[in-house]
Structure formats: C-alpha cells, structure tokens
Design brief:
Number of domains: 2
Number of strands: 9
CATH superfamily of the largest domain: Vaccinia Virus protein VP39
Radius of gyration: 21 Å
Number of helices: 12
Largest sheet: 7 strands, mixed
Shape: elongated
CATH class of the largest domain: Alpha Beta
Order of helices and strands: HEHEHEHEHEHEHHEEEHHHH
C-alpha cells in the first residue's frame, strides 16, 4: 500500500523533482523517533514532513513541532489531519528556516532538528546545522547512505572533506540505523542511513575562531590533493620561514595534503594564519 492508501485518501503521486520517498516502515519510524527522544513542550523542527510518518508521533509526544513542507498537496493533507492539530506548519524552503531563526521565532533557546532528507537538500541542511549548532540539542537526519558515510569519514579517506571537517569540529556523529529501499514509497534506488548529531560540550573550535577555521577548511579542500605548502603560499601568502616554523612547531610539513589533516591539526593551522586581503 502507498501512504495515501493507508490513510484512506486518494493516492499520492510522489514528485521526483522533490526527491520524495516517503517513510512507511513502522518499526523504522519507531526507532527514529526513539533516537529523537521527543519531550513534552520542547521545540522540534522537522525538515520535510512528507506524509507525516515521523510528524505524528513527534506531535503525539507533546512536543511543539514546526513542520516544513513545500509540496502544496502534502501541506493540505497535513493541515487537515486531526492527529496533527498542534503542528506548526511552514511552507518555506529549508534554506529560509535555519534552526537559530526558528528557535528565536518560537521563543526557544534550543531545539531538536529532524528530517528525512532528499539527496539534493542534504548538504544545505547539514551546513545549516553546523552554523547554528549553539541552538541545537540534537540532530537526527535520514540521509542517502553515501552522504552519511562521508560525514563519518576521518583523515586519510578519499571522502574526507569539507563536510566532515566542519561537522565533527562541533558535533559527535553516530550511526543510528540503516534503511533499505523497501522502507520507503516509492523505493529509492539507493540505501539510506540515519545519523544522530549531538553538539560537543566543548567544541574543537571556539566561536570567535570559527570563521577563520571554516574558510581554511573550504580553501584547502577545494584542492585536497595539492601539497599544503603550495596552498598556503597561494591563498595565505606565507613565506618559507613560516613553513619551516609550522613544521617545527606544529609538525605540519609542507608536503602534507589537506586530506591527511586531522581536525585538531586544522584548528592549530587556522590559529596561525591570517587571510590575504582581497
């Protein structure tokens, strides 16, 4: 059965352009909700309510749920569902609803962020979480498994790059579960994975140092296979004396490549650099 059949309404036609694959496995839904651990009165922001498979148990918990959905047909169904009478629906794209803005709009210091994300929105949602980590209590995202694996990668992996270097500097990241295609309607051609991100009690990068760290990570990983020395000369105009001191003081030799640098090493490097004036 399709989700619409189960609800006794006319069949839904998932929109491929929006990457719609609706959750329909009750056991999987229970496990995801358990990972969120909704509590009465707390604020939860759900990106992409879809048919409401996650939304209903979240609302039933007594949490205040802000549900984001851009599909007009789904919005109408959600608004008409008596089980979702307390749902705070928003029809803007998620790029217009960053967590910090939503928390402020609804008078909350922190919120939980949830979503079954299509591939094309994964990076946008993850980068939003990185920037607004201070107002997040927890993030639980269903992602394409390829994206989730990249988020979990560390130095030396070919998939280690901007996203893991930023996320892991502010969050502990853990796998919750894997989901096969049959857990969705229509079944996607790829496998999925649920990740839980918890803000670190003491993030590896101080708030004041974050802009420099973020810029360094993005700069280096744009040319991840080039040597560190050449990249620093090109983008930060360092001289040979700086590179010698960097190797002596931090153990960061000029022949190192960005993909081999740990977050701790990137933090130390960012602390020594000054951007070249544009």
């Amino acid at each position: 059965m399709t989700p619409a059949d189960e609800e006794g309404s006319r069949p839904l036609r998932p929109r491929k352009a929006l990457g719609q694959n609706f959750l329909r496995d009750p056991n999987l839904i229970r496990k995801i909700v358990a990972a969120v651990d909704p509590q009465p009165g707390e604020l939860i922001l759900e990106y992409g309510c879809g048919t409401g498979a996650l939304t209903r148990p979240l609302v039933a918990s007594g949490a205040r749920v802000v549900g984001v959905e851009v599909d007009r047909e789904l919005l109408a169904r959600l608004a008409a569902d008596p089980a979702l009478a307390g749902l705070l629906l928003r029809d803007e794209g998620l790029e217009h609803l960053p967590p910090a803005a939503v928390a402020a709009a609804y008078g909350a210091a922190r919120l939980k962020l949830v979503g079954n994300l299509p591939y094309q929105l994964s990076s946008t949602a993850l980068f939003a979480a990185v920037e607004d980590w201070h107002c997040l209590e927890r993030v639980v995202f269903m992602l394409q498994r390829e994206v989730a694996e990249r988020v979990l990668e560390g130095p030396g992996s070919r998939r280690y790059g901007i996203l893991p270097a930023l996320l892991q500097a502010r969050f502990s990241v853990e796998k919750v579960l894997d989901a096969g295609p049959r857990a969705f309607f229509p079944p996607p051609e790829v496998k999925s994975r649920v990740l839980r991100l918890t803000p670190l009690p003491r993030p590896q990068v101080a708030a004041a140092a974050w802009p420099a760290y973020r810029e360094l990570v993005k700069t280096l990983f744009r040319e991840r296979r080039k040597q560190l020395g050449s990249l620093l000369r090109k983008y930060y105009a360092v001289d040979e004396g700086f590179l010698v001191e960097l190797e002596r003081g931090e153990g960061l030799g000029p022949s190192r490549r960005p993909e081999t640098l740990s977050i701790e090493e990137l933090v130390r490097l960012a602390g020594r650099l000054r951007p070249v004036p544009s």
